[in-house]
Amino acid sequence: QVQLVESGGGLVQAGDSLRLSCLASEGTVSGYAVGWFRQAPGTEREFLAGINWSGGLTYYADSVKGRFTVSRDNADNKIFLQINSLKPEDAAVYYCAVSGTYYNRASAFGSWGQGTQVTVSS
What we know:
Blueprint: E1 3-7, E2 10-13, E3 18-26, E4 33-39, E5 46-51, E6 58-60, E7 68-73, E8 78-83, E9 92-99, E10 116-121
Parallel strand pairs: 2-10
Antiparallel strand pairs: 1-3, 3-8, 4-5, 4-9, 5-6, 7-8, 9-10
């Protein structure tokens, strides 16, 4: 089993950048794909990005492509989500999760972290 902890969220202004971290506090993510998701109040959870076990393949939702970048450091059991040019609609709780199969299918992910909140002021 893998236990994940997200961090790096906070209150930022529109146009700023933010780097979120996903840490495997228990187990390892080195053999798994990792995905990033977000959920705003009253909305469905949105699949944002995924990265395969080696980091050589990535997926991005159309809504964030070009502004979000997912990367990983398997040696340190960490995965990152770089968010540039933040918009008010980016405000949400951001989660990471692991997949033992697909990196680009939302239904493949589980073992969710607790989430980190991103608030954007305009």
